C-alpha cells in the first residue's frame, strides 16, 4: 500500500455497496476506524506487539496464500481468519472496494448525483439532487419516485443496493458510462438514460444563524475538509460564536481532523496513538482562533476522527460539547495486501485524547447532555460564553 495520510475508515455493513457510499454524500453508513499506511508499521525493538499487529497481518497473509494454492478464495479464507481473531474492527476488502473507498476519501465519487430513501411501503424516493449533476441536468427532482435502474425494479430493495446500481459498483462503471433510470412523478412515468460523472462530496456546509452565529457542519473528514473549516472560521463575523456540528460524522482522514482542530487551537496536542507499542502524537498547527466562543455538537453517530477532534477541543478547554455520548471508535487499523490483491485491515493500536482518555469502547461524554433541541441549547450556551471562552 502507498504511504497515505493517517485516516479513519468505515466498516462494511452491506458489503461493497455501503463501503463505497459512506463518503459519497449519497448514503452515510455506520462505524469508522482509524487506519495507518503500511509504511508506518515499524515498531521499536522490544516493543510489545498486539495479537492483531504485524504478526497478525503475516498470519492472515499465510492463510490467504494457502487458500490460493488450494484453489480456494484467498479473500474468503482471510475473512474467516479475521473473524476468528476476535479483532472487533478487523475486516477484509476486495481490491476494487478498497480502491473505491480511497477515491471517496479524496472527496470524489462516480455517480449521477441522487440522494434516495426507502419509504415504508418500499418505494424508493429521490430526496435530493446535486446541482449541476447528470440527474439535475436531466430534470430529476426531489420527490420523484425511482422505479427502476437499468430496467431492474427497485421497490423494496435496500437503499444501499439501489445506489450501488446507480453507481455501477458491480461492474466497476466509470465516469461516462450510461445508466437508465425509470421514474414516476404524479401520474407521469418515464425512462431516462444518464451518463455517470465524477462528482465531489459536500463534506462541509456553512450557514449563519440569527445573531451572527456560524454553524459549520462536517459530515466526514475527506481531503480538504480541514482547510475548508479554517477558512469558514476566518470568514465568520467577528466576535461571534461558532457551532461545530459533528453529529453523524463517521470519520475520515485524521490529518484533516487535526487541521480542523488547528482552526481553534494555537498549536499543541490533539491526540496520541500507539502502533505496536510505539507511542506517537498528533499536533495542531499554531495560529488558530483561541478566543471565539465554540460549541461542538455530537451524538452516537460521531465516530473516530470526529471523536478525536471533539476530545481535543474538550480536553483543551476550547469548546463546550453538547449532545449525547459519541460512538466510541478509537482504535487504529493497518491495511496490508493479500495475494489476490484484496486488503486486510487489522487493529494495531488505539487513540487517546490530550488528557490521556481512551476513546475506543467509551466514546466522549458531552459537557451538556441533550437529545432534542440540541442546536437551540448550543445557542444558549454561546450566549452565556460571550467573550469569556478561551483556551486553557
Q: Which structural class do you get from the secondary structure elements?
A: alpha+beta
Annotation field: number of helices: 10
| Helix coverage percent | 25-40%
Uncertain residue ranges: 1-53, 387-392
CATH superfamily of the largest domain: 2-enoyl-CoA Hydratase, Chain A, domain 1
What is the number of beta strands?
21
Instruction: Kindly report the CATH topology of the largest domain.
Output: 2-enoyl-CoA Hydratase, Chain A, domain 1
Please state the CA-atom Rg, rounded to the nearest Å: 22 Å
Supply the CATH architecture of the largest domain.
Alpha-Beta Complex
Query: Can you identify the CATH class of the largest domain?
Result: Alpha Beta
Shape: globular
The largest sheet is: 7 strands, mixed
Mean pLDDT over all positions: 83
Note the gap between the termini: 40 Å
Count of folded domains:
3
**Beta-strand share of residues:** 25-35%
How would the blueprint of this fold be written?
Blueprint: E1 7-10, H1 17-21, E2 32-35, H2 54-69, H3 74-85, E3 91-93, H4 95-105, E4 108-111, E5 114-118, E6 124-129, H5 134-137, E7 145-149, E8 152-153, H6 159-167, E9 178-185, E10 188-195, E11 197-200, E12 204-208, E13 214-218, H7 225-235, E14 242-245, H8 254-261, E15 269-275, E16 278-283, E17 294-298, H9 305-315, E18 320-323, E19 331-337, E20 343-352, E21 368-369, H10 374-385
Parallel strand pairs: 2-19, 13-14, 14-17, 17-18, 18-21
Antiparallel strand pairs: 1-2, 3-20, 4-11, 5-6, 6-7, 7-8, 7-9, 9-10, 12-13, 15-16, 15-20, 19-20
Helix pairs in contact: 2-3, 7-8, 8-9
Amino acid at each position: 500500500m502507498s504511504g497515505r495520510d493517517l485516516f479513519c475508515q468505515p466498516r462494511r455493513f452491506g458489503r461493497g455497496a455501503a463501503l463505497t457510499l459512506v463518503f459519497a454524500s449519497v448514503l452515510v453508513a455506520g462505524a469508522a476506524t482509524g487506519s495507518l499506511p503500511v509504511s508506518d508499521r515499524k515498531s521499536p525493538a522490544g516493543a510489545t506487539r498486539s495479537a492483531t499487529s504485524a504478526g497478525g497481518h503475516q498470519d492472515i497473509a499465510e492463510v490467504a496464500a494457502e487458500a490460493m494454492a488450494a484453489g480456494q478464495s484467498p479473500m474468503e479464507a482471510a475473512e474467516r481468519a479475521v473473524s476468528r481473531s476476535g479483532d472487533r474492527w478487523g475486516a477484509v476488502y476486495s481490491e476494487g472496494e478498497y480502491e473505491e473507498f480511497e477515491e471517496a476519501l479524496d472527496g470524489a465519487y462516480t455517480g449521477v448525483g441522487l440522494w434516495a430513501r426507502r419509504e415504508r411501503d418500499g418505494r424508493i424516493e429521490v430526496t435530493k439532487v446535486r446541482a449541476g449533476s447528470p440527474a439535475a441536468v436531466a430534470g430529476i427532482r426531489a420527490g420523484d419516485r425511482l422505479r427502476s435502474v437499468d430496467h431492474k425494479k427497485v421497490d423494496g430493495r435496500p437503499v444501499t443496493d439501489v445506489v450501488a446500481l446507480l453507481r455501477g459498483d458491480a461492474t466497476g462503471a466509470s465516469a461516462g458510462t450510461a445508466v437508465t433510470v425509470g421514474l414516476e412523478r404524479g401520474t407521469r412515468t418515464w425512462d431516462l438514460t444518464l451518463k455517470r460523472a465524477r462528482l465531489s462530496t459536500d463534506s462541509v456546509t456553512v450557514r449563519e444563524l440569527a445573531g451572527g452565529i456560524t454553524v459549520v457542519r462536517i459530515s466526514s473528514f475527506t481531503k480538504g475538509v480541514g482547510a475548508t473549516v479554517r477558512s469558514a472560521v476566518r470568514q465568520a463575523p467577528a466576535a461571534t460564536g461558532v457551532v461545530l456540528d459533528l453529529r453523524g460524522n463517521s470519520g475520515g482522514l485524521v490529518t484533516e481532523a487535526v487541521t480542523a482542530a488547528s482552526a481553534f487551537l494555537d498549536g499543541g496536542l490533539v491526540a496520541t496513538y500507539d502502533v505496536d507499542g510505539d507511542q506517537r502524537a498528533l499536533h495542531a498547527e499554531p495560529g488558530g482562533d483561541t478566543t471565539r466562543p465554540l460549541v461542538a455538537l455530537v451524538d452516537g453517530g460521531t465516530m473516530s476522527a470526529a471523536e478525536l477532534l471533539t476530545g481535543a477541543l474538550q480536553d483543551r478547554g476550547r469548546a463546550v460539547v453538547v449532545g449525547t455520548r459519541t460512538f466510541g471508535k478509537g482504535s487504529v487499523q493497518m491495511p496490508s495486501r493479500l495475494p489476490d490483491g484484496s486488503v486486510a485491515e487489522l487493529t494495531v493500536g488505539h487513540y487517546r485524547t490530550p488528557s490521556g482518555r481512551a476513546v475506543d469502547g467509551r466514546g466522549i461524554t458531552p459537557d451538556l447532555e441533550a437529545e432534542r433541541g440540541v442546536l437551540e441549547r448550543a445557542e444558549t450556551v454561546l450566549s452565556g460564553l460571550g467573550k469569556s471562552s478561551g483556551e486553557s
